[in-house]
Specification:
The chain is mainly alpha-helical and 187 residues long. It contains ten helices and no strands. The radius of gyration is 18 Å and the shape is elongated.
């Protein structure tokens, strides 16, 4: 008999599977098997696979807002110390999740095929870019801060992709040091 599993456990398993294998390659059968539940139990919480994936994305986004971006977004005047804390949180997250970023992985796989996915992915990356933008704003024009934020986000995710391929965060750590140097120079 299948055991009763809550929404959070379903999200844990689905997030890990979607991150590692992708949305298309992860079936509902695999998710329920990993949780030891029936499809009915899963559908009690999530009416569709898309709803489950969107909930997983929202959960990752909420974690990043509360933990990763918080040192910067909650500071009155964020600078190098807050960026260092955000960088540390990014490195901690990807050390714990060597399969990479769920939203980045899904953006490559199906980001444009689903408007709901595209919107969730866009919102996540825009929040990340906004966190960088406020750090880079000191001593720069709005356009310069925006360009640096966009470049930083792109470079970080390139490093995360390399980490996923080789389980090595050294490129990300080097990039984080350069971003900190950029912020210190502007102060």
């Amino acid at each position: 008999m299948a055991r009763r599993v809550g929404r959070e456990r379903l999200l844990d398993e689905a997030t890990a599977l979607f991150r590692a294998k992708g949305y298309s390659a992860t079936g509902i059968d695999e998710i329920v098997r990993a949780c030891g539940v029936t499809k009915g139990s899963l559908y009690h919480h999530f009416p569709t696979k898309e709803a489950l994936a969107l909930a997983a994305m929202e959960r990752v986004e909420a974690h990043f807002e509360a933990v990763v971006f918080a040192p910067v977004t909650r500071a009155e005047r964020p600078g190098a110390a807050e960026l260092a804390a955000m960088n540390a949180a990014v490195e901690t997250f990807f050390t714990a999740h060597p399969d990479g970023c769920l939203l980045a992985n899904l953006s490559l796989e199906i980001g444009g095929a689903s408007e709901a996915f595209r919107a969730a992915i866009h919102r996540f990356f825009e929040a990340w870019r906004a966190a960088y933008r406020v750090v880079f704003a000191t001593g720069r024009t709005e356009a310069e801060a925006d360009a640096l934020a966009t470049d930083a986000l792109a470079a970080v995710h390139g490093c995360v992709l390399l980490h996923r391929l080789g389980d090595d965060l050294s490129a990300l750590r080097r990039l984080h040091r350069r971003l900190l140097d950029d912020v210190r120079e502007a102060d």
